[in-house]
Write a structure and sequence with these properties.
The complex is a heterodimer.
Chain A lengths: L3 E3 L4 E4 L4 E7 L7 E6 L6 E6 L3 E5 L2 E6 L4 E6 L8 E8 L6 E3 L3 E6 L1
Parallel strand pairs in A: 2-11
Antiparallel strand pairs in A: 1-3, 3-8, 4-5, 4-9, 6-7, 7-8, 9-10, 9-11
Chain B lengths: L3 E4 L2 E4 L5 E7 L5 E7 L5 E8 L5 E2 L10 E5 L2 E6 L8 E8 L7 E2 L3 E5 L1
Parallel strand pairs in B: 2-11
Antiparallel strand pairs in B: 1-3, 3-8, 4-5, 4-9, 5-6, 7-8, 9-10, 9-11
Classes of the chains: A mainly beta, B mainly beta.
Chain lengths: ~110, ~110
Amino acid sequence: QKEVEQNSGPLSVPEGAIASLNCTYSDRGSQSFFWYRQYSGKSPELIMFIYSNGDKEDGRFTAQLNKASQYVSLLIRDSQPSDSATYLCAVPGGSQGNLIFGKGTKLSVKP
Amino acid sequence: SAVISQKPSRDICQRGTSLTIQCQVDSQVTMMFWYRQQPGQSLTLIATANQGSEATYESGFVIDKFPISRPNLTFSTLTVSNMSPEDSSIYLCSVEETGGQPQHFGDGTRLSIL
């Protein structure tokens, strides 16, 4: 059974700081990794995905993947109060093509 | 990416009744997925809906409780049957797009059972 682990938080950072969200996964064969942002009462929104070791940057977001350590992280630079949400890490679950989600980390950015 | 529409967006239902949730996609897709998100929890896959075949259910979910239809490549329904307060959740539809594109979700259906 594939598993995805995240610190549930809450993670609190001041506005303008870097928020670092971490995720570990159990299946060494996982090839793709996804970060979703979910505002309270809303559905998850895809914000980043990464397939290769190293860093992938998109605006203020950077995804970092280390397959040897089975570790993927999401960095949010210049955090804004609007970034306050729950961030879900996900990996492909199997032959059906579904995703396995972590429990999510709740981020709070304080003005 | 595909645009996914779900109806209803929310509902409050009486115990023992059933509700059918619709998921419409603006393009043809092979796989459609139904997830449940209970309050304060992460997403759990209920079943995978393939056009032209029976849905594949995950452990802990059964067809009698969550019947699914997939009449064509752009539409699916999930029925939550004989509802109890434990079924109060957000129900989400997602699709697998071509070319290995990441999955996107509909806006979800927020269901409360009294």
